[in-house]
Specification:
Layout lengths: L6 E2 L6 H5 L3 E2 L3 E6 L5 H14 L4 E5 L4 H11 L6 H6 L3 E5 L2 H5 L6 H19 L3 E5 L1 H5 L5 H17 L3 E7 L12 H5 L2 E8 L6 E9 L8 E2 L1 E4 L2 E4 L7
Parallel strand pairs: 3-7, 3-8, 4-5, 4-6, 6-7
Antiparallel strand pairs: 1-2, 8-9, 9-10, 11-12
Helix pairs in contact: 6-8
The structure holds adenosine-5'-triphosphate and magnesium ion.
């Protein structure tokens, strides 16, 4: 049997090579990186490339409205001229809400709200038969719970429910540090099946970028860190040259 059949390709040349072909079906994957690393752009590009292959996807933005998100994405990826068309055909669904603003009116209902947000996502995934989903980001979900233990439990429930729905998920996680040597491990990193990290090392004009697959259950992934560049035609990941 062809192993590729059991995978969702990211469609990004270089990234599929790093992962070992693609993301195994129904894997729950964390995409982590510092502020401005390109997490939103990279995950949207994966959704976009999949839409072009006929795989329906939903982008759940928990911090930005749909309009603002899509207009930022189109302005960076100006060569993705068919984004509106794919959205109109519902091959890409963008669901944007500003949870922090919604919660400022109801500060006491937070843990309950976590459950509500997740069940709304689940019903939409089921209704739309989506194959791939992006959740941007876990930061807002972590603000909804009082203790690290409760957060861990809720994230565990989220990942097992999404796995049961058969959907491949990319959960965006913010890391405080841009640099590879300073990354701190978070609960999601252990619960989820895969971790992809984006780094920005060095300072200002000397900054270099790197993307690395830390783990990917069910895939023979590489142990390389590859430089990446954000361009109007997508994220370009350099071919692997040096082993760490
Ligand atoms: N046209 C462009 N060309 C090159 N780089 C760009 C372009 N547009 C945006 N960028 C880069 O992309 C970054 C934003 O990417 P993105 O929004 O995906 O980051 P993020 O990791 O999601 O950030 P945050 O943590 O703030 O959500 C900008 O900080 C900028 O460096
Ligand atoms: Mg972002």
């Amino acid at each position: 049997m062809d192993e590729q059949i059991n995978m969702i390709k990211t469609g990004i040349e270089g990234l599929d090579d790093l992962i070992g072909g693609g993301i195994p079906f129904a894997n729950q994957v964390v995409l982590a990186g510092g502020p401005g690393a390109g997490k939103t752009l990279l995950s949207f590009e994966i959704l976009y490339r999949n839409a072009k292959m006929g795989n329906k996807g939903i982008y759940f933005s928990l911090e930005e409205s749909e309009g603002k998100l899509v207009s930022n994405l189109k302005s960076t990826f100006s060569q993705f001229t068919d984004v509106d068309d794919l959205i109109k055909k519902k091959i890409i669904i963008v669901e944007g809400r500003q949870i922090s603003a919604e919660l400022s009116n109801r500060p006491s209902e937070t843990e309950h709200e976590f459950g509500n947000i997740v069940s709304q996502m689940e019903s939409m995934i089921f209704k739309e038969s989506a194959k791939l989903i992006i959740v941007d980001s876990s930061a807002i979900l972590s603000l909804l719970v009082q203790t690290p233990l409760m957060y861990r439990r809720l994230m565990l429930a989220l990942s097992s429910n999404f796995r049961r729905l058969g959907v491949t998920t990319i959960l965006i996680v913010e890391s405080n540090n841009l640099e590879r040597s300073k990354v701190e491990f978070k609960p999601e990193y252990f619960i989820f099946d895969g971790i992809i990290m984006m780094y920005q090392n060095g300072k200002q004009e000397k900054r270099t970028t790197g993307i690395e697959v830390i783990k990917m259950r069910g895939a023979k992934h590489s142990f390389y860190t590859a430089p990446y560049e954000i361009t109007s035609s997508g994220i370009k990941i350099s071919p692997i040259t040096d082993q760490i």
